[in-house]
Specification:
alpha+beta; four-stranded antiparallel beta sheet; 7 helices; 10 strands; DNA-binding
DNA sequence: CCCACGACCTGCTGGC
DNA sequence: TGCCAGCAGGTCGTGG
């Protein structure tokens, strides 16, 4: 489901609502997530206090008082729900993991497609964890600089869109914000990364701006993104190209085009994001 | 090594 | 109305 702005929105909501809570009961309805919920899950987290909720890339890190954190990813369709102590909650389909706190609040992990995960990891092992160790820099931190981006793009022949979605190059950019950032830069998504490297400075600024703006709007809501309060984000109202096939470009009114790149939809304006090699008709 | 693709899942939409 | 193909915000393992 979510890219960096959505995950960060969830993080903030969780940190506000469950920090300081003590886990007094745990129920796992379905362990078959992307990484199976381990058998010892319940025992390991019972009695622990939530110290804080942090984030690395699109992973949420729920800091516990003991030796563990809970490492969670929302996949495509995962969400967390915080149920206030005053509310009687009726379970719904795909509520996989359920924590009850001493205060009476509850935290529920729900994920229809089960591409997400939630699992305990020893704090000491977190940095070297297989899921995290190959991740690139955070896009809103200084390590992700225009020069860094230029160097990384120069080394790759893959399409620039694939490059900026590669979590080893930079984390947090998914299909939506890749499309939006490339539009903002005026780069054709199919252009090889090494050719796009000359525009690295502008692309860098676009990635940062798109993620910042989305975060300021509370993330994007498509089918199933809700923040902790169950409210939608608003950034989807600002999409320039994503999901806008056949609609007029906001800049030049040319029809937005959808193509498929490595199995995913890419949306772009063929006029604003022209690339000489792809303007001709498809060769037969 | 680099890159593209299929697999992993369920649910929704649109066309017939 | 019902069915089926196609599509969905991510990531990983494989094979060319």
């Amino acid at each position: 489901m979510p890219e960096l702005p959505e995950v960060e929105t969830v993080r903030r909501g969780l940190d506000t609502h469950i920090r300081g809570e003590i886990i007094v009961s745990v129920r796992v309805a379905n362990r078959t997530l992307r990484q199976p919920v381990p058998k010892e899950f319940e025992k390991r987290i019972l009695g622990q206090k939530i110290e804080a909720v942090s984030r690395r890339a699109k992973y949420l890190v729920i800091q516990l008082s003991g030796d563990d954190v809970l490492l969670s990813h929302l996949g495509m369709s995962g969400c967390f729900k915080v149920i206030p102590e005053t509310e009687q909650y009726t379970p719904v389909a795909h509520d996989h993991v359920w924590l009850c706190f001493e205060s009476g609040k509850q935290l529920i992990y729900n994920d229809p497609r089960r591409f997400g995960m939630i699992l305990p990891v020893k704090k000491l092992d977190l940095a070297q964890h297989a899921l995290l160790e190959h991740l690139g820099p955070e896009p809103l931190e200084p390590a992700f600089s225009p020069l860094y981006l230029k160097r990384m793009l120069e080394a790759r022949k893959a399409p620039v869109k694939a490059a900026i979605m590669d979590q080893e190059l930079v984390v947090g950019v998914g299909n939506i914000y890749a499309c939006e950032a490339l539009f903002k830069t005026g780069l054709n998504p199919r252009m090889p990364a090494c050719e796009a490297a000359s525009k690295a400075k502008k692309l860098h600024a676009a990635i940062v701006a798109v993620l910042r703006d989305a975060l300021a709007s509370g993330g994007s809501s498509l089918k199933d993104f809700y923040n902790i309060e169950g409210k939608t984000g608003y950034f989807q109202h600002h999409f320039a190209v994503y999901g806008r096939e056949n609609a007029p470009c906001t800049a030049c009114a040319t029809e937005i085009v959808r193509i498929t790149q490595s199995g995913r939809s890419t949306f772009f304006c063929p006029r604003c994001q022209k690339w000489p090699q792809v303007t001709g008709r498809a060769k037969k």
